[in-house]
Write a structure and sequence with these properties.
5-stranded parallel β-sheet, 6% strand, 48% helix, 467 residues, single chain, alpha/beta, 22 helices, post-AAA+ oligomerization domain-like, Zinc Finger, Delta Prime, domain 3, Rossmann fold
Length: 467
């Protein structure tokens, strides 16, 4: 027997035992909280629903941001048949069965079908290929949800036939609105939430409405939801943390100063506090990128690469998995040799510029590619690649700052070698030496002693490791 689209009696019966997050699921677009960039007047999703166009969409966003809700709203608002498959359990056979049913319904009654596939990134290429004819011919309106970057996890032909919509994590105000509705709507729970408990709920949610409602339901016994009830319900202590107040600034300050001080354990503690308190992880990633240059710099140039990679990984996979990437960057920065020579150098140069020490570019460095430049005196440039060591004496700085030294490398890590290299370069540039010394002419990569070949390893190495 063909199931109806939305049977009111069945819905009422299911609602009595359904989780709070399911009971509170919006029934219309106007009830949806957040995602206004998709739902505002003239926005893509609203045009799709109100225009009743059979256009397939891929919803990409973190958990609890409304992907399933929006899919059901599309079906409900347009009075289409609703079918749902999970990519975790469904196979090609299940997909083809739903498509055949949709084709039959379309031919017999004209009824269109919304096929919702949750976690579509878990479908193999073959399974995704099986969807193409139905999407191409519009036998179904595909609404696919994914928490993974679809450009990596969804095949290109399916992407090109669908509208890609990106959902954002709900804001703190959005989560508060979700909780407020759940405590006043007849479908929700008849409780009052204390202010500090509400703050904890917001932090706990981390932009995930489902997480907030699940925690609220677990603590919603009696007339009042307190912080203690919430802590017991979720088995998790509330982290006292004001994202707009002293705790925000104090904890990030402790985090950065622990990295600067090379205390990896303290730094990881502060990182964990910020993650657990719901701090914006992109803020943490930005601070790591800044710190990699501010307090490490050329002492370990790889620190910046690690920090940037962690920030990119965060954008790619999000929390909770990206906590590992943030921790790796934190550990790298803690263990790296420290130097503030980069920030000191650029700030010293900026200070001179602000004092008016600018001057004109020396004539031999000025642009000489156009006709008439020689008549203006733009001559005399000495091409470094024509000289030994690729360095030659000539003036590069404007007259007011000739001889000023902004960058002063330290003696730790790579900067130890860079210091020797820099000294040789400056001697040649100023004419005190003809050629950069051979032992520092090849660059400033750190010197290290290579490990002996395997055949030269001690025969009792295994015994040494065991002992």
């Amino acid at each position: 027997m063909e199931p109806s689209l939305f049977d009111a009696a069945e819905q009422d019966a299911a609602a009595r035992v359904a989780p709070l997050a399911v009971r509170m699921r919006p029934r219309t677009l106007d009830e949806v909280i957040g995602q206004q960039h998709l739902l505002g007047p003239g926005a893509p999703l609203r045009r799709l629903v109100e225009g009743d166009a059979p256009l397939s969409v891929i919803l990409w966003g973190p958990p609890g941001t409304g992907k399933t809700t929006l899919a059901m709203t599309i079906a409900h608002s347009t009075q289409r048949r609703w079918r749902e498959l999970s990519a975790v359990t469904a196979g090609v056979k299940d997909v083809r069965q739903v498509v055949e049913e949709a084709k039959r319904a379309l031919g017999e009654t004209g009824a269109q079908t919304v096929l919702f596939i949750d976690e579509v990134h878990r479908f193999s290429k073959t399974q995704q290929d099986a969807l193409l004819p139905s999407v191409e011919n519009r036998w179904v309106t595909l609404v696919a949800a994914t928490t993974e970057n679809p450009f990596f996890s969804v095949i290109s032909p399916l992407l090109s036939r669908s509208l890609l919509l990106t959902l954002e994590p709900l804001s703190d105000d959005d989560i508060r609105a979700v909780v407020a509705r759940a405590t006043t709507d007849p479908r929700g729970v008849d409780v009052t939430v204390e202010p500090d408990a509400l703050d904890f709920l917001v932090r706990l949610a981390g932009g995930d409405a489902r997480r907030a409602l699940t925690a609220l339901e677990a603590a919603a016994y009696g007339d009042l939801v307190t912080l203690e009830k919430l802590e017991q319900a979720v088995d998790r202590a509330a982290v006292r943390y004001d994202r707009d107040g002293d705790q925000h600034y104090d904890v990030i300050s402790g985090f950065i100063k622990s990295i600067r001080g090379s205390d990896v354990d303290a730094a990881l503690h502060y990182l964990a506090r910020m993650i657990e308190a719901g701090e914006d992880p992109r803020f943490i990633a930005r601070r790591l990128v800044v710190h990699a240059s501010e307090d490490i710099g050329m002492a370990d140039p790889g620190a910046l690469t690690t920090a940037v990679a962690a920030a990119q990984a965060l954008e790619l996979i999000g929390l909770p998995e990206a906590r590992i990437n943030l921790a790796q960057a934190t550990i790298h920065l803690c263990l790296a040799p420290k130097s503030n020579a980069v920030i000191t150098a650029v700030d010293s140069a900026i200070a001179d510029v602000r004092r008016g020490l600018t001057g004109t570019v020396p004539p031999h460095l000025r642009d000489a590619h156009y006709a008439g430049s020689q008549q203006l005196g733009h001559t005399g440039y000495r091409y470094p690649h024509d000289f030994p060591g690729r360095v030659v004496a000539q003036q590069y700085a404007p007259d007011p700052v000739v001889g000023r030294e902004y960058y002063s490398p330290g003696s730790l890590g790579v900067e130890r070698v860079a210091k020797e290299r820099l000294a040789g370069l400056r001697e040649v540039l100023r004419g005190d030496r003809d050629v950069v010394p051979e032992d520092v002419a090849t660059g400033f990569r750190p010197r290290c002693t290579p490990a002996p070949p395997p055949h030269e390893q001690p025969e009792d190495l295994g015994q040494q490791r065991e002992s």
